[in-house]
Amino acid sequence: MTTQRVLLRGRLVLSDRIIQDGVLVIEGEEITRVIDADEPTQLSQDDRSIVASVTGSDKTYLPGLVDVHCHGGGGESFPNAVTEEQAMTAVLEHRRHGTTSLVASCVTACADDLRARAATLAALSQAGELAGIHFEGPFVSHERCGAQDPAHIIDPDADLTRELLDICGGHCLSMTVAQEKPGAYGPDSVAEALIDGGAIPSWGHTDSGAVPAREAIQYSLERHRDSGSVRATASTITHLFNGMRPLHHRDTGPIGEFLAAAARNHTIVEVICDGIHVDPSLVRDVYEIAGRDQTVFVTDAMAAAGMADGDYVLGPQEVTVLDGVARLTQGGAIAGGTAHLLDCVRVAVQQAQIPLVDAVYMASVQGAKILGDTSIGRLCEGVRADIVEVDGDLRPVRVWRRGRPVD
Description:
Elements: E1 5-13, E2 18-27, E3 30-36, H1 45-53, E4 60-63, E5 65-70, E6 72-73, E7 76-77, H2 84-95, E8 99-107, H3 111-126, E9 132-136, H4 158-168, E10 172-177, H5 190-196, E11 200-203, H6 210-227, E12 236-237, H7 255-263, E13 268-272, H8 280-290, E14 295-298, E15 310-314, E16 317-322, E17 325-328, H9 341-350, H10 356-362, H11 365-371, E18 387-390, E19 396-401, E20 404-405
Parallel strand pairs: 1-4, 5-8, 8-9, 9-10, 10-11, 11-12, 12-13, 13-14
Antiparallel strand pairs: 1-2, 2-3, 4-18, 6-7, 15-16, 16-17, 18-19, 19-20
């Protein structure tokens, strides 16, 4: 059977630069060549023939985006999905908008619900529809629980963690843990269980001061180095600023330590760059302090992503969405996001004035790095043909995943 060749010509956003006139050669599920048509003297005869065979265009192509923190979309919620079909509704909502690799995030719930969600999401991960699973809780802070249900928050339990990892069958990427809680890090801790089990701790939903924050990151770094894990980082920070004690010059909280650790290349900070969770000017500050290699854009999206305002659920919590902002119906805390990851790239470029190359990098390469997957997140030879065509306003026009158009 002959492998079909597809040629895409236009502006190509690579990891380190933009090719103003380039050609992507796709054969089967893989990008086999990236040609810079602006450098004709550098091209082989075969490359020149390929360039001559496809008409130039003003189209812009990005790598498929990678979201490592997402609770749902399209009206369905991963924490509430009891069937694979329900979960796939959320996956496809984001996939059609350019997120070709998606980690499904659960929320704090009872242990039986977490076990059930882990089994459903692991099956989709095994099938290649999801990139992994993230547990946001249940070992988080009551004081900084945000939209996490305080009724189901418990102290860190390494045995439960190992049980969930076993159900996930190697597909658990991370778990959000409040580092100040006993058993969060150290011997026989949740962090130890996660790292030894091929996952990573993500510090967040925390009322911690500076000392536990620094110690938890250092412990993760040392344990990760000894583990041989395929994951590319020792720990992440769950949506920096949101769900944690704010920075104050006498009551410092954890934020300063998280940023300092990112600047030391010891952790990667998540930022919800949707223009709602974090002011775009502060997103720019994080980018300038930590750099693109230690910052990852996430959506924290819930069921209302891509949907109209109205009433939704996020795990056991009821959520009301008004003017695109999701809040707990009781209490009013922000309850996840309603954006797609490409929306976050647009906010970064248009409002935070972050260069397009770096904004795309933080929404693609960085997620792939956390997953430890070098086959996604870039436009280069030898990687999976996950590609997003966008218009001049950075809105999706067409999406390819594994070389096939996404309907």
